[in-house]
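Quick one:
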Amino acid sequence: MFVQAAAEALPSELNGVAGEVYVHFPWGSLLRAVVTGDEVVLRNLRRICAPQARLKIFMSLDAARDRSEIERLGLPQMSPVFLNTVLRPRYEQAGFEILETEMLSDVAWTELRTSWAKRLRENEKRSLIYIGARAGELKT
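Output:
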């Protein structure tokens, strides 16, 4: 199924239908939402998930090359500590249980078979960040 909609305003017809949700290389407001744990966006992603659905997020940033976008969006520096101490509770509050957070190696790029991943991996300074989660109970 292909849906073109803002993550902040996903159609109600999608409630509970997704067995898997992939967010590959977000940019702009979606990047800010997944990096900062924006409650509205994460709850909307959770809302479209079936019970136990998987959420897989792959992000890629180059601190120097993407500096203006990082500053514009007010993004924090991504690190394992940030992923586990700041983002984990925010995702859990939105109804996701984080199963994995990783700063992936160069080998992981080859598993992402998109033309955009191919372009991005040409930059050796670009980090690859993965968040793997499962839809759990919605928190009120």
